[in-house]
Design a protein that fits this description.
By secondary structure, the chain is an alpha+beta fold. It has a single domain, classed as 2-Layer Sandwich (HIT family, subunit A). The chain is built from 6 helices and 14 strands. It has helices at residues 121-139, 174-190, 194-205, 246-266, 312-316, 325-334; strands spanning 9-13, 18-22, 71-74, 88-91, 94-97, 101-107, 144-151, 163-169, 209-212, 216-219, 230-234, 273-278, 293-297, 320-321. The strands form 3 sheets. It has a 9-stranded antiparallel β-sheet with strand order 3-6-8-7-12-13-11-10-9, sandwiched between helices. It has a 3-stranded mixed β-sheet with strand order 1-2-14, with no helix packed on it. A two-stranded antiparallel ribbon has the order 4-5. A hairpin with a 3-residue loop joins strand 9 and strand 10. The longest helix is centred in the C-terminal third of the chain and has 21 residues, at 246-266. The N and C termini lie far apart (43 Å). The relative contact order is 0.17. Bound molecules: 5,6-dihydrouridine-5'-monophosphate (H2U) and zinc ion (ZN). Zinc ion is lined by residues 47, 50, 52-53, 112, 161.
Length: 343
């Protein structure tokens, strides 16, 4: 076997059936320049100009209630609408379908100056409970519910008030289609969920495990694309978010608290990322092949300001990374899980 840390190689992503190019020799040169930390402007606990703060006005003259826990509302600029008429065209190589759906915004807390990483585990648990309820409610009507968060300006987040989004639609998006196909194919030949077998292998090897507790594991996937990417999985077979037990929701809050603190501690900055949940689509017949999970895709590479650009080769050929997944996992594993602002 080649030395992963010295030679360019390609790794296979079993979940999406794609390859990623790893060029670790590009990273062997010593760290140059200082490690910048991300000095961030102090935000007030309440911002009268913030459209997500309690009691404030949003677009279209909607007024937020004076909420005290997580607060969900229908996105005033939804990308999907519930009343789109059914229509489809299939003319030669021109094909389209009308689609229906809805988009919601979830404010995690009324406190404008917090992030999920800075909330106590009990308040992260309230967010998890809302995710589960929203998933159940919207799954009753729509084929796919995507819960996600874009965090930080670097990831295109439009407002620092801690919030995420929920989009539900009457179709299965590409990423889910690929994950379902791979898990189904694996289940048919091995009779076990792909991600549970993968998890067992990672727990045996240990090198890519970032942290774990009684119910959950966070790993840097072997096939990671983003520098400090992670995959969060329950240890027990669970196909969908709304099938988690009360205990699993609490232990998830603890795991997220620790993982997010490690992320913030890495460059002593409020770590940007896109994160989101995947699980068996509602009404999916062969859902036993599915293992629910969260993906964290953070863009930072070397410091609070230097990000990995997914550009030339990545856009035109295939994703490429410099840090090995093992290196990234080890750095995160050895970092404190006490948030640097709480020390
Ligand atoms: P992002 O920061 O991830 O873009 O999420 C903010 C969402 O809030 C965004 O989708 C919505 C935007 O459409 N929004 C409202 O629904 N009402 C507003 O008054 C402003 C922004
Ligand atoms: Zn606010």
């Amino acid at each position: 076997m080649i030395n992963f840390n010295e030679h360019p190689h390609r790794r296979y992503n079993f979940l999406t059936d794609e390859w990623v190019l790893v060029s670790p020799h590009r990273n062997l040169r010593p760290w140059q320049g200082k490690m910048e930390t991300g000095a961030q402007a102090q935000r007030p606990g309440y911002d009268p100009a913030c459209y997500l703060c309690p009691g404030n006005k949003r677009a279209h003259d909607q007024i937020n209630p004076r909420y005290s826990g997580p607060f969900v509302f229908t996105n005033d600029f939804s990308a999907l609408l519930p009343d789109t008429p059914a229509s489809a065209v299939d003319e030669g190589l021109i094909r389209y379908k009308g689609c229906r759906g809805t988009c919601r915004v979830i404010c995690y807390t009324p406190q404008h100056d917090k992030t999920l990483a800075m909330l106590p585990a009990e308040e992260i648990l309230q967010v998890i409970e809302v995710w589960c309820r929203q998933w159940s409610e919207l799954s009753a009507e729509y084929a796919w519910v995507q819960i996600f968060e874009n965090k930080g300006e670097m990831m295109g987040c439009s407002n620092p008030h801690p919030h995420g989004q929920i989009w539900a639609g009457d179709f299965i998006p590409n990423e889910l289609f690929a994950e379902t196909a791979s898990q189904m194919k694996y289940y048919r030949t091995h009779g076990a969920p792909l991600l549970l077998d993968y998890l067992q292998q990672e727990l045996r090897l240990g090198v890519r495990v970032i942290l774990e507790n009684a119910d959950w594991v966070a790993v840097t996937p072997f096939w990671a694309v983003w520098p400090y990417e992670s995959l969060v999985l329950p240890k027990r077979p669970v196909t969908r978010l709304d099938l988690l037990s009360g205990e699993e929701k609490s232990s998830l809050a603890d795991l997220l608290k620790n993982l997010l603190a490690k992320y913030d501690n890495l460059f002593e900055t409020s770590f940007p990322y896109t994160m989101g949940w995947h699980g068996a689509p509602a009404g999916e017949e062969n859902s036993c092949c599915w293992q629910m999970h969260a993906h964290f895709y953070p863009p930072l590479l070397r410091s609070a300001s230097i990000k990995k650009f997914m550009v030339g080769y990545e856009m035109l050929a295939e994703p490429q990374r410099d840090l090995t997944a093992e290196y990234a996992a080890e750095r995160l594993r050895t970092l404190s899980s006490v948030h640097y602002l709480d020390r």
